[in-house]
Amino acid sequence: MKELFPAQVERLAEPHFLVLFWAAQAEDRKVKFNITNCFDDLKFHRITRTKQNVVAILDSLAALCFVTLKDEGNRRNIYITPYGAKALEALVLHHKFQPRQSAFLEDLTP
Amino acid sequence: MTIGIGGAGGKLAIKLDQDALLVNVSEVEMGKLPARNKLLAVRHSVQGQLRGSRKNPQIGQDAYFSIREELLRLIRGNLVFSSTGGGTGCGICTALLQEISQGAEPALADRTRFAFVLPYAKQEPAEFVANTTQFLGGPLSEALDSGNTGNLILFSNRLKFESKLAEEEFNELMVTSLRTFLEIPRKNEELRLLDGHIDVEDFNLYTAKPYFNHFTTFEFDPGAPFDRQLAQNLNPLLLPPENPIEAIFLLEVPEGGDPRAFYNILDHFTGKEVTPIYSVVENPRLRKPSVTVSMLYSRKPAELVDDFNRISQEHVKAKVRKTVEQHVQLHRLEVNLEQEVKQLARQRGESDNDILVVLKRIGKL
Fold it and tell me: Do the Cβ atoms of B355 and A99 come within 8 Å?
């Protein structure tokens, strides 16, 4: 089982990294980060153009227990889990991806 | 007859002579002075008719042509007052002097005497100084070279500004000073003559010469050297004189006074190779001897222009400095480097370390 976690992290792509990163940032700032925000941000960075892709990314992260999706009101909010935090830490330490800003969190929407 | 051109010229002329002829481009301005004789110069524009020339000599120059014939006839043998800084006086006199310079040499009796009031460059508007510079370097230089004018009297506003005098008071001083000089032949006729003689013809001949005239009046102490007394009593209303070319003096002694005191004055001028015209009269109203001296001198107008240019440049520099200080406010840029770096980091994303800090802070690591 020890080899499983690095293998899981190894397979994560940039969108996964960014979702984990933004989810952590949002929690740090005590802001709720939902699927729509996540879609807007990924679209802002021209990573994806469809919401289905975003849902797929989030589903995979949730399946790996890296994030928890909670239905709150009529929003589905994203929370990073301790496994997700470890995965993000591993990605950061390997300098695999460069962080990008969240248009939602930084209020950069044109 | 005395002729006053422009605002300043008109005020002085009317003060010296109630029958003076005033010349202006603005009827409104002319109406402010109690003159019987007025001559309105017009130009083909509404500008200047109501508000005067507002420091623009071109308006005066254009308007001159509407009164050219009449003015040239009227100024013959007379005294003209004008300022060199304003628009009307400077403009009309520019055109007038150019015409006189280019014309045939007039008879001595027909030469016009000019009294100009120069601005005090340190404190008067830069436009006045610029107009004066152009006037001194252009038409006045030409007039001097041509030798077609009479005496040129250069009053300066320096004393007015340095002593903080009211305009009325200062004008009175200038006119009184000039009147004292102009009264020399009358005193010769009215008072008892003790030595020498200056008649009206002598005086007119003297004032018809094309030089700058510096005149002054002071109480004369026969026991003290005249050089020193003259140096101490130069007329503060006029520009200081250079070495005299010709001179005239009237010594007034009190009743029973010693008329021989004039030899001291003669010696002074002889030392400068000048043989003055002089007279000594007895004035019973005086308690001490008094002397009225006039010296004709020539100064290269270029030197005058240089003086003015120098002061004018300082003036312009100061003005530019002031403009910069007053209108181009350079806001002090206060940069908090720490905040800027954080802001930049936020815009670029977050550094690796920051991400780890965040994760620890939210208790997920």
Answer: yes
Position B346 confidence tier, pLDDT thresholds 50, 70, 90: low
Give the Cα separation of B241 and A39 in Å (integer).
92
Buried-exposed string B117-144: b where 16+ CB fall within 10 A, e elsewhere: bbbbbeebeebbbbbbbbbbbebbbbbb
Distance between CA atoms of B207 and B80, rounded to whole angstroms?
13
Q: Does B327 touch chain A (CB under 8 A)?
A: no
Q: Which residues of A touch B365 (CB under 8 A)?
A: 82, 85-86, 89
Question: Which chain B residues are Cβ-neighbours of A25 within 8 angstroms?
Answer: 350, 358
What are the tens digits of pLDDT across the range B2-55?
999 988 999 999 999 999 999 988 888 888 888 888 888 887 765 555 566 667
Could you give the percent of chain B with pLDDT greater than 70?
A: 88
Class in CATH terms, B1-182: alpha beta
**Nearest Cα residue in chain B from A93:** B352
ipTM, two decimals: 0.83
Q: Choose which CATH entry (3.40.50.300, 3.30.1330.20, 3.30.450.20, 3.40.50.450) describes domain B188-299.
A: 3.30.1330.20
For A4-95, give the CATH class. Answer: mainly alpha
